[in-house]
Amino acid sequence: MVNFGHSTKITLCHLELQARVAKRRMQIQAGPLEMLFEKHFGNATSIGNKVVKMLRSLVQPYDGEIDSDSTEDDKHLSAIIDTAEALATRKLKTYGEDNDDTEETKVDRVSQPVLKRLKSHLTKAIYGRFMKRCKLMFASSVTSCHKKFEESQSLCYDTIPFPIHYFTCSAMNSLTLCKPDRFKIMSHKYCELGQVQDAARGTHESLFSSELDSEMSGLENISKTVKHQLHLNLHFVAVEAPELEQGYSVNQLQTEMKHDLEYYKIILATFDKMFTFLIIMFTYFVFKNCVLIIMNYLNDIEYKNYFTTPYFWHIDSKRRREGKVFLWPLRKEEIKFNNLISPFGLPRSDEIRKMTKAFVRWIVLLFVVIAIVMLDYYYNRMLEIVIEHGKMLSEQTSYSHLNIKVDGEGVVANLLKEILNFNYTGYLKEELTNEKCLKNASSKPDWLYNSYSLFLPVFLILLLMVFFNFVVQRFVFLVVMGIIFPYRSKARIIHLYNKLLLARINMDKLNEAKKIEEKKENKKKIEEKNNLKDK
């Protein structure tokens, strides 16, 4: 981890150094032009902004209206108008007025809608917006009226008791009072047909001239011209920004690497938490096995109860001194039948199998430890080679001179003098080295620390968990458990002794009975032989 941190610092330091070198190269390539822009760009920008604001004030009021594409505002207006027209259609269908044509409607149908007389796509789009805003006035009146009368009618039904409200509240019908069909006719005449009624003459006059197409085309051309002139203000962005982007791209790379480093730290921290979790789970399983062993030790008196401990022989010697039946020495049949073993005896077959499994796990652990140590060594060696052979010296020298003089009189000449008059001489000499990036020495492997912190524990694990695994288990089972549960330990040994003693007594009785039976049979055989001889 320490060497990983050093390598990251070295990489980031070299990126910072490369950024400085790239920036200086850009300054050398730009020469005095950069100083010219830094000195006079403020004045040129302020003057240009004034011109731009004036031109924009001419275009901005109608800039959005000459766009041929549909906008969100257009969609919103269409939704309101569709609602009002739906109310008008509903009234006509409800009251059976679908085929009723007024005289005024028949006159209006003779006229051709303005939208069909227009040819240009742009002019149709502009007139379409006008028509929607015109219809919006009528549609808003209809929807507002409909909403108010619906609320009034609902309040009437809730307030006036049954059945009076059927006679009074039904008169508040929004379809008949608001007259949406009348508003639909008016919006068709004034908005779609573009007509206005002259009350004095009794005639209809058109709101739009016949030259609307050419006028809108001229307005679009003026707007495009002004917008094209406004693009001149983007000269600095188009010319200077790419150079600055090249100069600062290394800084961006450095920032991205710092972010990646943070991600790596998060990943390593996650692995650390996972490793801690595995250790906790391993500890849990170890303690779980210990709990199972303790429960079997306390509840099952026959569990691993085959050790002839010193207390076992103490009981036997006491019985021998008292002249009672004792077990010393144990017979081979008893040892084999009851699987008896001394606490200081050689390992049994099941203990040898456990030692073999523990040895396989120890081999895996040893391989992991050696791999980590070797990886740390080679990583450290790689850093040493980089530090030893990675020294770098960058020297940059430049000289630049620029003299701009504007001659002339007048307003334009004075403006150009204010912006362009410039006299500059520059000299640059800089040496950059990466010594500070390499001054952090890598963390060399501490073999003494590795010996007593890694290899010594591995060797102790080999001794305690492999070669002397059976000794440790017997010590824990007989000594530690005997200290923790002394009465249970004595009860187990007494139970084993009584079981063997009872088996010994029964076996002796059986052997005596066999001997008596054999004596009787031998005696009978002798008597039979004697009787045969007498005859």
UniProtKB/TrEMBL annotation:
Its main location: membrane. It is a multi-pass membrane protein. Keywords: Coiled coil, Membrane, Transmembrane, Transmembrane helix. The chain crosses the membrane at residues 274-298, 358-379, 454-487. Residues 507-535 form a coiled coil. The keyword Membrane applies. It comes from Meloidogyne enterolobii (Root-knot nematode worm). The keyword Transmembrane applies. PANTHER family: DENDRITIC CELL-SPECIFIC TRANSMEMBRANE PROTEIN (PTHR21041), E3 UBIQUITIN-PROTEIN LIGASE DCST1 (PTHR21041:SF17). One of its GO terms (cellular component) is membrane. Pfam families: DC_STAMP. It is found in: Membrane. Signal peptide: none annotated. This is Dendritic cell-specific transmembrane protein-like domain-containing protein. Residues 303-497 form the Dendritic cell-specific transmembrane protein-like domain.
